[in-house]
Design brief:
Structural class: alpha/beta
CATH topology of the largest domain: Aspartate Aminotransferase, domain 2
CATH class of the largest domain: Alpha Beta
Helix content: 40-55%
CATH superfamily of the largest domain: Type I PLP-dependent aspartate aminotransferase-like (Major domain)
Radius of gyration: 21 Å
CATH architecture of the largest domain: 3-Layer(aba) Sandwich
Strand content: 5-15%
Shape: globular
Length: 378
């Protein structure tokens, strides 16, 4: 869908795209300035430690304590080529062939692929809008077998925008400790929560989990740095050491200039993040209201990240512009063709019948795109 939308744009068509999984803001100036300065320093023209610049690893440890209350040492940090690389490395470190990984759906499209590439077996646990897209301890226990090795946990969540309460996070962490299940917790959207919803880090709430938990994170979403490709993994020192050795043979060090930019980001102020969150709050409220005004569409309020995840099943099997879509995949293709609006169908996230709409785009484009959708299906 994304490729088709881009091709249509390149051909001169006025397409409104809701597929972007990245902030539409530029990287803050002080971070860019740090990168420019780093380019001129010859020491950044050479190889550096495969696991990350020591000063960046320490800054990430400090930032983790500051932002989530989780106290770790620099030796527990591995700097990776983006958050996606951290996810892959985490499963490569933990999974032996046949190990099962509990994967609540809807899920980000990379998770099942990373698990499978590592030899693991994704065990999908379905959730829906009736439960706020949150998995329960009872569901996890029902899915657990003697082969269960890892739980993948995400809050705030992509694609649903759900945010677990601290009590819910703690209950899941305590369950994992009780049953010896590792947790890979993705905290990439930690600073993007709205209203009364708040981020909570599982190993902070459940300290006994620390020796069986890997935290993955990065600068991409918080600091509008998706293209800089800097992420990290935090975990027990033996896992991080093994993962660093693995990375040394796979990619060697992350680009030094990007690491220097990331250092300026994580060690610097969060003023730009506050500005972005205010804009996302406004846009999410607008999109949520406009989507719910469409007959056949229902949408829970986004609690975090920058996505709405509406239930579109009321539009399936309906005549829309002379065509009928049986799935949200077909619906997405139909809407792109007839209304020039692109969204990501729920099939990509293990949630047929739903769709992901990013509100990381300008207010005017957002309103125009949802208006086109409403006019088409109305």
């Amino acid at each position: 869908m994304d490729s088709k939308a881009k091709a249509m744009k390149a051909a001169g068509e006025n397409v409104v795209g809701f597929g972007a999984g990245e902030p539409d803001f530029p990287t803050p100036v002080h971070i860019v300035d740090a990168a420019i300065e780093a380019c001129r320093d010859p020491k950044n023209h050479r190889y550096s430690p495969a696991g990350g610049l020591p000063e960046l690893k320490q800054a990430i440890a400090d930032k983790t304590k500051r932002d989530s209350g989780y106290a770790v040492e620099a030796a527990q940090v591995l700097v990776t080529n983006g958050g996606k690389h951290a996810v892959y490395t985490a499963f490569a470190a933990l999974c032996d062939p046949g190990d099962e990984v509990l994967l609540p759906a809807p899920y980000w499209t990379t998770y099942p692929e990373s698990i499978t590439l590592a030899g693991g077996v994704p065990v999908v646990i379905e959730t829906g809008d009736e439960t706020g897209f949150k998995v329960t301890v009872d569901q996890l226990e029902a899915a657990r077998t003697e082969r269960t090795k890892v739980l993948l946990f995400v809050s705030p969540d992509n694609p649903s925008g759900a945010v677990y309460t601290p009590a819910e996070v703690a209950a899941i962490g305590e369950w994992a400790v009780e049953h010896g299940v590792w947790v890979v917790t993705d905290e990439i959207y930690e600073h993007l929560t709205y209203g009364a919803h708040e981020f909570a880090s599982m190993p902070t709430l459940v300290p006994d989990l620390a020796e069986q938990c890997l935290v993955v994170n990065g600068v991409a979403k918080t600091y509008a740095m998706t293209g800089w490709r800097v992420g990290w993994m935090i975990g027990p020192t033996d896992v991080v050491k093994a993962s660093s050795n693995f990375q040394s043979h796979a990619t060697s060090n992350v680009a030094n200039v990007s690491q220097r930019a990331a250092l300026a980001a994580v060690a610097g102020p969060l003023d730009d993040v506050v500005m972005m969150r205010e804009a996302f709050t406004r846009r999410g409220t607008t999109m949520h209201g406009m989507l719910n005004d469409i007959d056949g569409v229902t949408c829970i309020e986004p609690q975090g990240a920058f996505y709405c995840f509406p239930n579109m099943s009321g539009l399936l099997g309906r005549d829309i512009g002379g065509s009928v879509a049986a799935t949200t995949l077909e619906l997405a293709d139909l809407v792109l063709d007839q209304a020039k609006v692109a969204f990501v169908p729920g099939e990509a996230f293990g949630a047929p019948g739903y769709a992901r709409f990013s509100f990381a785009l300008g207010d005017a484009d957002l309103e125009e795109g949802i208006r086109r959708l409403a006019e088409l299906v109305g």
